Amino acid sequence: MSDIVELERRLTAAMDRIARGVDGIGGAGTADADELAALKQALEDERLVTAQLEERVRTLHAREEEATAALQAELDSARNAMQRLDSELQRLRKANEQLRDSVAQLSEANAAGVAEPHLINKAMLAELEVLRAARAADVAEADAIMATIAPLLSEEEGEDA
Prior knowledge:
Keywords: Coiled coil
Shape: rod-shaped
Helix content: over 70%
Strand content: under 5%
Order of helices and strands: HHH
Distance between the termini: 30 Å
Structural class: mainly alpha
Number of strands: 0
Coiled coil: 36-112
Number of domains: 1
């Protein structure tokens, strides 16, 4: 940014010199051709520098926008992974609660001396659901970790290249 300010200062100074030169031409009736040529060259040089700096600024803005978009995509990916993980953890908690209820009913039936096959089946189904939910939660957790690590790994690969 300081380059642009410096450029503006130099451009203003060159324009002032040209204006004084033009005033001198009008006032004196004749102009120093060498000074006029030097001023025109200085103006042209400043215009070239201005164009180069403007191009650099455009390039920097484009890079910034690309980086922002990439970071937003990474953030969205991490959020989605965390939402999936939360969903799977809720499922696991619910399945654990069902398993506890089934085990409690089975214990009560066993204490009463009544062996009820449907309670055993219900407990086994609840246990299977807990195992499935635990596996899904583990997968979701691994996905969340990978979503967090993947950008770091790609950055490190870029630095190594």
